[in-house]
Amino acid sequence: MIMEEKKLRPVMPIQAEWSTPQLQENVAVALEGSGAALSTVKLAIDEIDEEVALVVNSSGSTGDAKLIAISRSALIASTNACHKFLGAVPGDTWSLLLPTTHIAGLNVVIRATALGTKVIDNRGANNYEDADFISIVPTQLHKAIHADPKLLEHLRAAEAVLVGGGPLDINLRKLAESKHVKVVTTYGMTEMSGGCVFNSKPLEGVKFELDNNGLIKVNGPMMAMGYIQADGTINSFAKNGWFSSTDLGEINSGLLKVIGRSDEVIISGGEKISLPFVESEIKKIYPDTPLIVFSIPDQLWGERLCIGAIVELSLEDIGSKLGPIFKPKSLFLFNEIPTTTIGKPDRQSAKNMALKLGNSN
C-alpha cells in the first residue's frame, strides 16, 4: 500500500508590527488557502499540513498552554455557526477589544472578514467606534459597568456583546442588562475554535455531554485538528469524535451550565471548594474591589483557601456572610491582580506571588 504524501503549505508567525488591516488581509488568505498559514508564536518549522489555517496557543490559565492546529474548515464552520446564532448579515461589523494572540481576538478578525467588513480596532481607544457585535471577557464588562462610561456606551450600542473566557457572575450580567447591554454568554476553548455554546445552547452542529466525572465533552465541525509538536506533527486530541475538557458542568433541559474548571476545585479540610464560585460570592460583597481567589499548599488544610486584593478586606465579614467553609484562611495584598493575556484570573501567578510574599496579612 502506497501512503500518499501530505501536501504542505507555508506557515509564518503573526508579526507584531502588522497593522490591523495587514493582519486581516493575511488572515483572509490563510482561510482562503492562497496564502501562508498563520501562527501566534514562532515555530521551528516553515511548512505545515495544507489544511491548517491557524496555529494558536491556548490561553493556558493553569500554565499548561498548548499549540493547537486549526483547519480552514473548522474556522469557517465556527464563524458561520456564530453568525447564524447572532443573525449577522454581510455588512455587519465587529469591534476588536481582545488581543490577537489567542483565538478569541483572532475570531473577531475572521468574523469581520466573513461579513465583508473591516474589523474595527478599538483596543486602547479613547473614543470607541461603534460596531454591531463585540467580544469581551468578564473583566472588561466589569470595567465598563464600574469605571469606563465610554466603554459602557460602546457596549450598549451593539446588537450583541459576547462575554466569554471565564465565568460571568450572574449579578454582573443582570447589572449589565439593566443598563441595556445585550449580553450573550459564550463557552468554548481553542480546541473547538473558540466559543461553541452561546447562552448555554450549542451552536449549530455542536453537541455536548458529561462524562462519568461530570466533565464536559463537546464535538462539532469546528473542532481543531490537534496539538502540534515541534516537528510539525499534529496529534489529534479527539476520542471517538469528542474533545474532553477539564470543565465541570451540569445539563438541564438541554442547557449547559458550566460549574468551573476541575483544576479550580480544591479540597480544603476535606471540603470540595470551587475557587470561581467563592470568588464570585466575595465579589458580591466587594463589587468594586479587584480581587482573586486561589489556594496554596497547607499542612493542616491540604490546600489553604486564600484571597488576593489590592486593599484590606475583612475575612471575618466574608466568613459571616458566606459561612466557615467558604471563608478564606489568608489575605494577601497585591499591587495588582494577576490575569492572563486574555484577561482571565491567573490563579497560578497569584499562588506564586503569595508564596513569595510568605506571611499573609
Question: What would you say about this model in short?
Answer:
GO terms for molecular function: medium-chain fatty acid-CoA ligase activity. With 361 residues, the protein is α/β, with parallel strands linked by helices.
List its traits.
single chain, 361 residues, alpha/beta, Rossmann fold, GMP Synthetase, Chain A, domain 3, seven-stranded mixed beta sheet, 9 helices
**Number of helical stretches of at least 4 residues:** 9
Could you name the CATH topology of the largest domain? Rossmann fold
CATH-defined architecture of the largest domain: 3-Layer(aba) Sandwich
What percentage of the residues does DSSP assign to strands (E)? 25-35%
Poorly predicted runs of 5 or more residues: none
Tell me, briefly, the overall form: globular
What is the overall pLDDT average?
Answer: 92
For the record, the CATH class of the largest domain is Alpha Beta
Tell me the major beta sheet.
7 strands, mixed
**What class would the helix/strand composition place it in?**
alpha/beta
| Number of domains as seen in the coordinates | 2
CATH superfamily of the largest domain: ANL, N-terminal domain
Task: Report, as a whole number of angstroms, the end-to-end distance.
Answer: 69 Å
